[in-house]
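Provenance

Sequences were taken from public entries as deposited. Structures were produced by running a predictor on each sequence independently, with no templates supplied. The record for DoxX family protein from Thalassobacillus hwangdonensis is shown for reference.
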Amino acid sequence: MTLLASIGLLLIRIVLGITFAAHGAQKLFGWFGGHGIEGTGGFFTSIGIKPGKTMALLAGLSELIGGLLFAIGLLTPLAALLIILTMIVAIMKVHGPNGYWATEGGYEYNVLIAIIALGIALTGAGTYSVDALIF
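Predicted structure for DoxX family protein:
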């Protein structure tokens, strides 16, 4: 793998992973303008995801852990799977009925995130990843 390709994968993994982990922190801790377990759980219950608080905890952990693993390139296929599954649920339960475009509350962002995660899982995390060091 070339130096530039390795740096490119590193940049993609870090930005996507940290952003996704931050979304998990919003759900779990209320950080970065989030609503924490209580608020997220209430929202989940209101859209039919029950039990709301338990599912908020699982979603938050999936986002936080998946995002951090993805950022450092550790167990990258598992990290990508956590990200992709979270995005599928978001599309099915929240954004799907709104159409494609994010400006209309649609699933554009969710598809973008899922496809980037899938692409990295299929190509590998790159030279500058923990996976490359241990596998």
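The first helix runs from residue 3 to 29.
The chain has a mean pLDDT of 97.
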